[in-house]
Amino acid sequence: MAAETLNGIVIGCTDYRDNDRMLTLFTVERGRVDCKARNCRKPTAPLLACAQPFVYGEYTVFFAKDRGTVDSCDVRESFYALREDPDRFLIASAAARFCLSAIEPDTPNERLFMLLYHTLSFLAYSEQNPLDLLCGFLIHFLDRIGYRPVLTHCAVCRRDVRSDAVLFYSAEAGGTVCVACPHGGRPVSRTALEAMRRMLLLEDRDLNRIRMSESLRKDVLALLIETASQALGAQDRAVKMLEQFLL
Ligand SMILES: [Zn+2]
Question: What is the DSSP string of 90-137?
Fold first, then answer.
């Protein structure tokens, strides 16, 4: 058996037997790692603290025949505050789920890892409206999986539309569509498009700077959830989790 030290965030966990839990880690070094945490559900278990959702830590994992077992963990951040706020917990769960759908074993994806890390940090510890942060997460997530929305020109005829007064947004077409092109989209304001453009310019560590009015937030969130639904499928679990924020 070989031991590896992996820096990872718990993005999934499933209980089995009386005291065990299967963890899915999003690790910097290996991408997705599924591993057992034995006896972690006993109140005095050494692995109790590291086998919780969203915990970020340095995990020592033994691998035998491609199966991992957690031996120990140095918890770096528990993001405990997420467990005390149902909306923030739900957004964190959806963000973790989005990442789960995008990563593979033995395929590091540090850019996506850092996006999740910063999103969980701000969700847990900043005063920012969590839906503003969710919008920032979603647009950067879509960008990193190859579904960056087209925001400066028409997704159909490719014409620059930044000075057009009337515009539409179609997730199916890939983003903004001009008035002359056929589309099945909805009207979109220039303010919403500009807000999304600015979000894409932000570094992950600056996502806590996103501030939107209530009506702009509602519009942008609807566009991004529609785009995520187009990218991952309308039945995707993370997409479904977020639909309640559109009510
Ligand atoms: Zn066009």
Answer: HHHHHHHHHHHHH--BT---HHHHHHHHHHHHHHHH--S-HHHHHHHH
- How far does the centroid of ligand 1 lie from the alpha carbon of residue 215, in Å? 26
Mean pLDDT value of segment 205-225: 97
Q: For the chain, how many helices (H) and strands (E)?
A: 6, 8
Q: How far apart are the first and last CA of the chain?
A: 51
pTM of the model: 0.96
Confidence of residue 31 (pLDDT cuts 50, 70, 90): very high
User: Cα(40) to centroid of ligand 1, in Å?
Assistant: 56
The rounded Å distance from CA 178 to ligand 1 centre is 4
* CA gap 201, 172 in Å, rounded: 23
CA separation for the pair 79, 62 (Å, rounded): 25
Protein residues placing their CB within 5 Å of the ion ligand 1: 154, 156-157, 178, 181
Domains of the chain, first to last: 2-78 (2.40.50.140), 84-246 (1.20.1440.120)
Q: Residues 149-192: pLDDT tens digits?
A: 999 999 999 999 999 999 999 999 999 999 999 878 999 999 99
Distance 190 CA to ligand 1 centre (A): 15
